[in-house]
Structures are given as structure tokens and as C-alpha cells.
């Protein structure tokens, strides 16, 4: 038996990274109060680091979608893998040319990842492990996190939107 209600535990778990960032920022402010130029400078650096951690964690938390979509997403250093009973596939991050947010016939949001020389990979937004796609997408050149988050707030009636498209690569020969 837990002393904390399950809803509160779930809420704290969802906000844990943001809370850690806030805690690091508070630690920096505490170090700042020690006085002296060294500790004040160190405190400001720690507080800025905590604020940056909290900001990134908040963006990542906004990307999360609850749901029961089939499949599992795994992101490794250079590859996005989606495994499901009916579909699945992989996309090398270096080969991705376009990312769209589309909707299934049932109205569920899904990412469609187009890549060079392969069929598009479609991943439901609420698949298990789909949160890791935020970091994978943001690592692509020119991706704007605000466009990713805005796309997730679209409804099926608004239709498909292109979130990112790779600019033409120059030939090396």
C-alpha cells in the first residue's frame, strides 16, 4: 500500500525531468547565496544549466502522447526502428528526407517518415517508446521543435502536414 495516491504518482513521474531541472536551478541559486565572486558565478552557471534542462524536459514532455497504439519504437544512434505485429520497419536518420504527421482512417495521428530508396515508415504517435522520436527528430538539421509540437495539436480534420523536409544535398563529385 502506497501513501501517495496513484494519480499523484503518475503526475510526478510525468513531470520528473522538469522537476529535476527546477531542482538544479534552485541548487544554483542556493550556491549563489554563498557570496563571493567565485560562488556567485558558479551559482549562475548551475542555475542556467538547470533552467536549460527544465526547458528541454518540458518540450519533451509536451511531445508525449498517451494511448494504446500497437508497436514499439526504438531509437539507436543512427536508426529509428518500429516493430509491430501488422507493420514495422526502420529508417536510418541519415537517409530521412521528410517527416509528415498524417492520420489513419480511424483518425489516429501517426508519423510518416520518408527516406531515400525505401518505403515510408509509419509510426503511431502513441506507440510505446514514441517519446524517443522527439530527440531523434530534433537531431536532424533544421528541425524546429515548435513545429513538431504544433503538428501534434492538429486534428484529423486539418489533414496531413509536413513537419520537416531535408534541403537538397550537394553532390561530392
From TrEMBL:
Keywords: Membrane, Transmembrane, Transmembrane helix
Transmembrane annotation, as ranges: 12-32, 38-58
Lineage top rank: taxon: Bacteria
Protein name, as recorded: Uncharacterized protein
Organism (species): Actibacterium lipolyticum
Amino acid at each position: 500500500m502506497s501513501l501517495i495516491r496513484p494519480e499523484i504518482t503518475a503526475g510526478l513521474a510525468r513531470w520528473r525531468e522538469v522537476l529535476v531541472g527546477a531542482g538544479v536551478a534552485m541548487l544554483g541559486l542556493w550556491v549563489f547565496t554563498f557570496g563571493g565572486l567565485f560562488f556567485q558565478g558558479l551559482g549562475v552557471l548551475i542555475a542556467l544549466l538547470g533552467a536549460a534542462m527544465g526547458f528541454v524536459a518540458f518540450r519533451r514532455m509536451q511531445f508525449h502522447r498517451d494511448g494504446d497504439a500497437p508497436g514499439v519504437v526504438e531509437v539507436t544512434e543512427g536508426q529509428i526502428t518500429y516493430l509491430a505485429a501488422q507493420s514495422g520497419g526502420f529508417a536510418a536518420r541519415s537517409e530521412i528526407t521528410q517527416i509528415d504527421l498524417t492520420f489513419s482512417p480511424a483518425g489516429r495521428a501517426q508519423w510518416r517518415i520518408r527516406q531515400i530508396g525505401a518505403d515510408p515508415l509509419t509510426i503511431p504517435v502513441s506507440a510505446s517508446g514514441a517519446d524517443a522520436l522527439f530527440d531523434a527528430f530534433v537531431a536532424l538539421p533544421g528541425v524546429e521543435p515548435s513545429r513538431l509540437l504544433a503538428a501534434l495539436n492538429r486534428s484529423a480534420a486539418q489533414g496531413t502536414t509536413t513537419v520537416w523536409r531535408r534541403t537538397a544535398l550537394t553532390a561530392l563529385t
